[in-house]
Every structure is written in C-alpha cells, then in structure tokens.
C-alpha cells in the first residue's frame, strides 16, 4: 500500500519548484481567461487558453469568428487586461503590470499591425514620418530616427514611398509601411491581426513575405491572426482556437527531398485534457463519451457504440491469431 504523505512532506512538495510552465518561451499564456461584462451579461471570450511561443517563432492563429483571436492579441499587446490566468510577453507580466509600465511595454516591447490599413498609419503624416513617430516617443534622436526609418522602408521595398501620405499609397504599400512602424523600436514581439485581410491574393502573399523576412532577419517573435489559408500554409505552426481555448495545432516541416509535411496535433493541457477536432468527432459520430485504451505507443479513442466495440474486439482477435 502506498504511504500517506505527512504534513511536512506535503509542505515540501508544495514549495518545491519544478521548472516554471513556459520557461524560456517568449509568449506564455497559462489558463488565460477574459470575461467581458456589458449590460449585466457576461461573455467569456477566453476560457482557460494555453499557448507557448518560442523566441523567434512565427506562428499563425486561426479559428472561427468569435473564437477569441482578437481578444488574445489585444491582451498580448497590452491593450486589454485579462480577467485571470497568466499572460507573459518577453518576461513582462500582463496581468499585474501598472499603467505606466503598460504604456512603455506597448511602445517598446510589441509592434502591432491591424487589418484596416487606415488604422495603422496617421493620414496626415508621410510614410517616413509615420515610421519615425514611435521612435520619437521612445526618445531617439532625430538623426537616428531618420536613418532607421529610411533603412526599414528600403528593406520592406517601399523606400520610394517615403515622402507620400497614406492616401497616395496602395493597400499593400500601406501594410508594408505599417510593418516598418511596428518594428521601428525593435520590439521583441510583432502581433498582426488579419494583416492581409483587406488585400488581394497576390498583394497578401507579398505583405506576408515582408513579415516573414522581418521575422527571419531580426528574429522577432511573430504571431499572425489570419483567415487566409495561404498564409496559414506558409508558417511552420498554426494554432487553432475554438471557444476561447487552443484546440489543435498543425506543424509543418520541409523534408530533405523538399516535400512539405504537415501533421495535425491536439493540444494536451496540464491536466491531461485534449479537445478532439470537430471533423474527427463528426466523422465517427462521437458524442458524450468515448472509449479509451492505452496501447504501448498510443492511446486509442473509439465512439461509445456496441458495433464499434465489436469491430475492435474482432480486430484484436485477428491480431492475436496471426
Ligand atoms: N469589448 C467587448 N465586449 C463584449 N464582448 C466582447 C468584446 N470584445 C469581444 N467580445 C466577445 O468575445 C468573443 C470573442 O471575440 P473576438 O473578437 O476575440 O473573436 P475573434 O475570434 O477575433 O472573431 P473575428 O474573427 O470575427 O474577429 C465574442 O463572443 C465577442 O462577441
């Protein structure tokens, strides 16, 4: 019989620190909750979301409308405050941060790109002035601002647009300049909410290419919320959000022979919960409860139906007869 731990043992276990969840990750969301209250009604936009993003990673976040993607991005950018849980970006704790620190965090640690091109740039400033502005807030010298803004515009292929105002630029050019604005203060993290949502397919691919270049060249951790399947296909990890929780992940890698392999994963949270993809449960008409079996190298999940059980027993029998 196993020994019942005494009080001293329980205290020792409680104070014993294992590696912290997400240690080394650049973005850590642990059981993140955001509840909105309006007119006495509560909307649970995030209900215990877990997410880890490594330094330098570029990931896409996908999910149905209303699943909580924008809420998550608003929290990570310091614009919104979570109700409970942990949200850490580049070491900054977004739950406990005071408003002064929050402002500094938003100006210096994160860059944000919105879907609406008009929301990213000030209409009365030129492209160059738009890129210089965040550096001005951060107290950089006029000369330094000018040199860096010119360099960034050049790198993003819009150097020739420096003197133009947003109304004189195409949607794609505006989004490239928005990327330059977002990275002007060398943030640790870039967050983009549907950055290609208003663009045609070719321009969208160009703008996403620019984001990817920034990620590769500066190692900026980048999170892109998108409905664009083409964008989601081009990242190594796509995280699916369903009902305010991370539900599934698709990981992609290039094999030595050049083929791109993609594999679907379900997220396993720390209590052992897994959300099966809706397509899987629908295909096998799984409802209410499933039958589980631990095998030597996997876990089997079956619909709770007598015929499914009989099929499995038949297969087991055939295997043992072989
Ligand atoms: N300020 C708010 N007040 C009340 N409810 C809100 C607020 N912001 C978002 N919500 C609700 O929270 C839930 C998640 O919204 P959110 O905008 O994060 O979803 P989304 O996945 O970004 O959707 P979309 O793809 O349509 O932009 C929705 O039910 C939404 O109505």
Report what the structure shows:
With about 325 residues, the protein is α/β, with parallel strands linked by helices. It folds into two domains: about 55-85 and about 100-265, Rossmann fold (3-Layer(aba) Sandwich); about 290-320, no CATH class. The protein has eleven helices and 13 strands. The strands form three sheets. A seven-stranded mixed beta sheet has the order 6-7-8-3-9-10-11, sandwiched between helices. Strands 2-1-4-5 form a four-stranded antiparallel beta sheet, covered by helices on one side. It is globular and about 80 Å long. The model has no long low-confidence stretch (mean pLDDT about 90). Bound molecules: adenosine-5'-triphosphate. The site of adenosine-5'-triphosphate has 12 residues, from strand 1, strand 2 and helix 2. Adenosine-5'-triphosphate binds near residues 36, 63 and 71.
């Amino acid at each position: 019989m196993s020994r019942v731990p005494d009080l001293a043992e329980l205290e020792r276990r409680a104070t014993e620190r294992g590696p912290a969840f997400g240690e080394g990750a650049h973005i850590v969301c642990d059981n993140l909750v955001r509840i909105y209250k309006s007119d006495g009604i509560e909307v649970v936009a995030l209900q215990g979301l877990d997410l880890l993003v490594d330094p330098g990673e570029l990931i896409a976040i996908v999910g149905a409308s209303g699943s909580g993607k924008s809420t998550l991005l608003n929290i990570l950018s310091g614009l919104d405050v979570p109700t409970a849980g942990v949200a850490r970006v580049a070491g900054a704790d977004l739950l406990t941060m005071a408003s002064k620190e929050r402002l500094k965090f938003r100006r210096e640690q994160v860059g944000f790109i919105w879907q609406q091109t008009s929301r990213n740039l000030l209409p009365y400033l030129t492209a160059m002035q738009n890129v210089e502005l965040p550096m001005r807030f951060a107290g950089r010298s006029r000369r330094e601002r000018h040199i860096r803004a010119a360099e960034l515009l050049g790198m993003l292929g819009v150097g020739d647009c420096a003197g133009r105002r947003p109304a004189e630029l195409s949607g794609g050019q505006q989004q490239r300049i928005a990327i330059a604005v977002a990275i002007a203060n060398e943030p640790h993290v870039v967050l983009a909410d549907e950055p290609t949502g208003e663009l045609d397919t070719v321009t969208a691919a160009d703008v996403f290419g620019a984001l990817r270049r920034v990620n590769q060249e500066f190692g900026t951790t980048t999170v892109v919320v998108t409905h664009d399947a083409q964008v989601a296909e081009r990242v190594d990890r796509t995280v699916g959000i369903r009902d305010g929780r991370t539900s599934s992940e698709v990981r992609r890698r290039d094999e030595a022979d050049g083929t791109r392999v993609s594999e679907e994963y379900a997220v396993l949270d720390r209590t052992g919960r897994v959300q099966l993809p809706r397509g899987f449960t629908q295909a096998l008409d799984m409802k209410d409860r499933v039958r589980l079996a631990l095998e030597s190298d996997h876990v089997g999940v079956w619909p709770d139906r007598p015929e499914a059980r009989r099929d499995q027993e038949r297969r087991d029998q055939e295997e043992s007869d072989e």
